[in-house]
Every structure is written in C-alpha cells, then in structure tokens.
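Write out the 3D structure for:
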Amino acid sequence: MHFHIITLFPEYFDSPLDCGLMGKALEKGILEVSRINPREFTRDRHRTVDDRPYGGGPGMVMLLDPLVQALNELPSGCRKVLLTPKGNPLDQSLAARLAGEDDLALVCGRYEGIDARLEELFDLELVSVGDFVLNGGESAALCLMESVARFMPGFLGRQESAGEESFSSGLLEYPHYTRPEEYAGLKVPDVLLSGDHGRIAAWRRQRSLENTFRLRPELLTSPLLTPEDLDFLQGLQRTRPGRNLYLALVHHPVKNKMGQESTTSLTNLDIHDIGRVCATYGLGKYYLCTPLQDQQVLAGRLLRHWREGSGAQANPDRARALSGGEVVSSLEDAVENIESLTGRKPRVVATSASGNGDLDCSQVLQCLDEDPVLMVLGTGYGLSDRIVQEADNLLAPLRLLGGYNHLSVRSAASIIVDRILGDFA
C-alpha cells in the first residue's frame, strides 16, 4: 500500500514513520509513504496557503488552489480521505476496507479548516478519529495509517495477533498478564496458569464480553454472539442497577386540558402495561399515587386479584408483572417508602413533554450507581408545575425536536426505561 499524505507539515511524520512496526514495514517495502506539501503548488513568493474567511470570524482558512493542485498529482484511482471532525468514525471495519486500496491519500487540514468547495471538486471520504478538536489532521492521519497498516500481510510479527485484538471480533479485548505471577499482592488469574487451553479460551471470551458490556455495551449487537455468550451476558445484565430505579405514576396533582391542577382516575391499561415494563427491566418498585380513597380501594383489589387471587393461578406472568406495584396517597409517600427500603433518599426525576430538561437517560443510568432514582410520570396532561419545580431534576423530553409530543404515559414509560436500562444502553 502507498500512503500519500497531503500536509503543510511533512516533517511531522518523521519520527512516527521511523520507529516501531511502521518503520520496519517501510524498510521491508510493505508500505510506501509520500508526503505532498501544498506550499509547493503556490503561485506567490510568500507561498501563501491560507486566507481570512468570508463573512468574518477568527482564524484562517486553507486556500483551494494549492490543495487542488496537490490532489491532481495523485495517481489515477487513488482513494482520497479527508480527516475532519464531521467525518464517519474510524473503526475497525472502515480500517479493513481502506486496507484493500493500493493508493490512499490522506488530506490533513490546518487552521480553521479547508475551503468547503474542495468537497465539491473531489470525491473525498470524510473520516473522523473522535469527537474532539486537534491542531490539524496530521495526528489523525497517523491513527488511520496505523490501524490500516495492521491489516497488511507481513506487518505484524504474528498475523493471528490482528484477529485477537480489540474490535476484531466486534468486542473489546480480554486482559493480558505476564511475569511475575504476583506483584504488589496482585496475582495472575489461576486459570491462565492451569495449562487448560479450553478453560483459558472460555475465560478470555467471557472477560472480553464483560469488558465490552461494562465499557462499550453499544458494541454488543454482533450476530457472532453464541448462545453461551448470551447466557453469560444475561447474567451480567442482572447485576446492573435496575433495582435502584423506581417509577411513580402520579394521578394528583396533574394538569387538565386548561393547564389547571386536577386529579385523574387510575386506568387498567396503565397499571398492567407499566407493571410489565417494570418486571421486564427489573425495576425496584412501581408506585400508583392517588389521594382518592375509592381509587386506592379499586387499585388494591385489582393488585390482590392478580397477585394472590384466581388471577395469579390463571396468569402467573401477570402476577409477576404486578408484583412490584404499590398504592400510595402521594409522591411524598413513595419517596418515604424508597428511603425506608434503601436507607437513602431517592433522587426525584420529573418527566415532561416540554422544556429542555437538565438530565438525559444516560445520566440517569450513571446516577443509579450511587443513589436510588424515582422517575415520576404524570397522567392527564402531565405533571403539575409544582411537582416539576420540587423535583431534583427534569428529564429531557423524549422528542426534543418533535412537534407533537403526545405519547401515552404507557409508551413514554417504556421508552424511558429502555433508554436507561436497555441491554445496549
């Protein structure tokens, strides 16, 4: 493979390309590298490559013509990559695809960026190495070159090493150990000293799954997961802090159509469907908050029927779904009950279809590691302003940019809980 680096600082690459595996690959001819400086294609005595941006603003913008002339020097069929924060993320699959090219050009921007018309003049593949700001594209180009080069035959000392690294199987890598067997009281896991290659392979697979589950669960969508992998992951899932999350369905005080404080009646569908959500995701408890005595009696009768009466025998799944339900007079009663169960006052998070909110679902998951969280859902036309103001946080709306935002409370509960505790949240 031949890398063509288009950069204003060709010397930036001197040391990285002269050491380690990259240096050896260049010596062996596995890789070739050309550095093309756009300054060589300028037409003025100052070798100008940048100018002030139209419309004003800070910094300078790279000029088109020197870059166009540099790109025109590339061999026919050369694939062109522009390193930019707005590009597609560089991952293992993209690196593997790029490794199939004979010629790969890497365009390194500087200053405030490159005149946008370059993307209209050339077929550029936009690639980003992360959501952060760099001084230029040179360090990003080095990341891409190393990730691509590792796929080249002969680059690694042991070619099978490439297949055992992080992301190669869609998972993070398992931990490694070497001598001594014990250091500062820390021992190498016994299984790695057993000589049993089957057990070692199984241990490594499970540690790889565990690392991915804990650190990058969004990667666990690979069709390569085996039934044994899924059994192991389900065991890990049961250790997640779902039991620290509680739901309260408030029937007073809520808003009516006119925006006034009012009270709503319990509904069979809400009780059953939200109960199923709580059971599916392993929540702590589910509180039905109503101050009306007749409603409390009705809810109590329904819960007893499905948990203890003939309904429990006819439909055990329904009994399990409603096992965590409890009727209370107010939201304050739910807070007190959680505090008595856990020894800690819960963080109260109100929900609303309007406003910006100050907490999202991923942040709620982080909170669960420390404290119980009571997620408060409103019936009618939503929670009263009083409850929202007294809550510790307001959850960001599920559809921040939506114009309708009138989900049923059952649908909203399902989406919220899945975003917080879903398998790959």
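The chain has three domains: 2-163, 182-237, 241-421.
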